[in-house]
Amino acid sequence: MEPAQKRVSATGAEGTATRPEQSETALELLVHGVGGTTPEKMLDDPRTVRITGDDTAAVFRRAEDADAETQPPDHGGRPVPEAYVWCNLTSGNGTRALWLLLLPFMVVNLAHWMRPTARGRRRTVRLYGLLVRLAGLSLTVLLVAAVCEVALDLTAWQCAGTRACAERHSWLGFLSPAVSDDGWWSGPGRRLALAALVPAVLTALLWYLSHRTWSAYESQQPMSRTPEPDEETGRTALNRPGFWYGRRLVARLRAAHTAAGLLTVAAAVGTAAARFDHRPGGPALLDVLGRLFEAALAATAAGVVWVVCRRGRSEHRLDRELDAHLVRRLPLGALALLLLAAVYAGWERPGWESEGRLPGDTTFGAIALVQGALVIALGVVAHVLHRAHPDPRAAMRGLGGPAVATLACALGGVMSGGVSQRVADWLDGTGVTIAGPPVLLTWQASVIPGVLVVLLALCGWLARRTWLLQRAELATMEQDYPGESADATRTRRIARTRAMATLTDRGPLLVAVTAATTLLLGAGALVGALTTDKAPAEAAQGTHTFVQGAADTAQALGSWLIGLGFILFVTWGRRAYKDAGARRTIGILWDVGTFWPRAAHPFAPPCYAERAVPDLTWRVATWTGATGGRLVISGHSQGSVLAAAAAWQLKPSVRKRVALLTYGSPLERLYGRWFPAHFGPAALSALHHDVDCWRNLHRPTDPIGGPVRLPGDCGPEVDRAALKDPLAYGRTGAHPLPAPILGHSDYQADPAFAEERQRLLARLRPDVPAQRPQDSSGRSSA
């Protein structure tokens, strides 16, 4: 599969390009969906060549079609297939398994793009984005605080300061005053300063990963063009020139979040020493230094929040500028403050001993309180936007973003509590030599069984609804396959597949119930921790036997579940690191979750669309400009979303020369419902009018794809009637063996696919007069 750019004149490389009026070539640009595939499978040919691109994403052709533009008669009018392969953007080498650790950041970034449709409410839209960015900042602080809890509190403060625990873990001996006979590192402040290396290194690693993935995935610049007049109508932001190039915002947020992580570490180290210095009768100099440190910490933290609040995305133009001074100085300032905190804490303080816990309850309680307030405010803003322009198909009546932000915060809390619980159990063994993690984390773990009970009840209800729907589908089999002899097993299998496919449409209900339950029980856990300052089992002592037993069970079961979840999480990541199949499964998760640019959190996994959409846009624009041929973009599943995004990025004159063929497409079923501001009815209707023609194929057995559901007369123009699946109920001459139930795959196996493709190519035929806007001459077909 060696590159063949020089042999294909239409790419704009060496050679003589065919004049548009002489071209008879048609191109079918295939874009695969989630999970990825190989160019050999997409093109149904073992011999393929790379036309353009690199090892990360590239366009391939059959070897015999490499010079198709120079020899159009050899193809007999059939379209030349090209395959755009982008699966390495999400499921390449084993290091992508580490992206699992960034899952909460990815989820909160999704919440940014889930806002309801808004027209003329710029301030409200900006407020929505601001609240999501602040929620993302709180997740960074939460993650670093959890690592500080493990490294500084549990390990350096509690275990190293306790003889029994330090003797059990000999590698902590040099930090323990009881074991090392008051060695240089045995002072509490010096132990904390040394342990601070762990969260500081983690913060630096997150900064490095964000910077590296930006350079590797998202630094591709889109085609430069002037904004279109209709981009102010609010139909969608995906046609703006700067939508797929967020370099400036990502750099600003990366600097702010890196500084926030370092400031969290500095606070954990410095405030512990300052609290000791503020006691009555303490050294006056250290007391003054402690107050100056706290003032500097508060001022720098306010600066970080100001940077996050100050500016959102710039989409109306291709913003190539970079706030270089801010990007460099903000993290360096926070690093300098961390070094000062380490020096300040390491000062010799006679009589200072590590007892109890560091003030983790206050820290985690404040984070939980801020996150709850942000989620509630986000819900209010989303409700206001939805009421201004209600969309009946929008998930959760416009509250999908706040619900997903709630789940992101809950996921961050579970990960933080899980690692703290496991490390505490490992350090303490079976004894009670250390105080353990903060009480709030124990309360949060104790409410997990309650969330699971609600989810199990909801799953039971969904199972019953699916069973009832399956029974209803049994009655339609005779209408869909008339004249076939009944086969009870075959009928049940088809009906069950159709019923299971509808579970996707129940996703908003599942998310709504989970988010509401999590928010309510999380608020109860916060109140319980702040009012009792005891673990649930301890707080229930002296109450009714049933209450005490329930509290003991919830605490034990919650601790076990959160530990099990953390172990499964690590195990899955390790397996994905070694196993390509498991890594591909994680890649599917990223295919759905990382389509959107990093607008709320810079440490989220990289956005593959900021590479894939410019790739497709450049390919379509340069090929049509060089050949004047006919072009159809043929997108399956997530590939249809990329195809639509690429079409929006084309110039209007080029967009009118492109046809779309989508199949198994989640454009309306998932993206239209969850991201109404960008894929709502107005946006999809505009896309239908902007491109030359668009046809969409779907099946009732497909759990992902569905109809586009355009309003009015546009709907039948785009959506073909649902395809039969399976193609034949029983054995026939064309299908002597039982036809499989295809579901979301192999749409090309249906004769309707070739029929619709041929119709699109016929509409784009070059002999139509060029002055007709709906059918200009010189088109390419994919």
Commentary on this structure:
With 782 residues, the protein is mainly alpha-helical. The chain has a domain at 5-90 and 611-709 and 753-763: 3-Layer(aba) Sandwich (Rossmann fold), CATH 3.40.50. It has 27 helices and 7 strands. The protein has helices at residues 39-43, 103-113, 122-159, 163-168, 188-195, 197-218, 247-277, 284-310, 324-345, 360-388, 400-428, 439-446, 448-474, 477-480, 488-501, 507-532, 536-539, 545-578, 580-593, 609-627, 638-649, 652-655, 667-674, 676-679, 681-690, 714-718, 751-763; strands spanning 26-31, 48-53, 58-62, 80-85, 630-636, 658-663, 693-697. It has a 7-stranded mixed β-sheet, sandwiched between helices. Strand 2 and strand 3 (58-62) form a beta hairpin. The protein is globular and about 90 Å long. Mean pLDDT is 84; it is low at 1-22, 230-234 and 767-782.
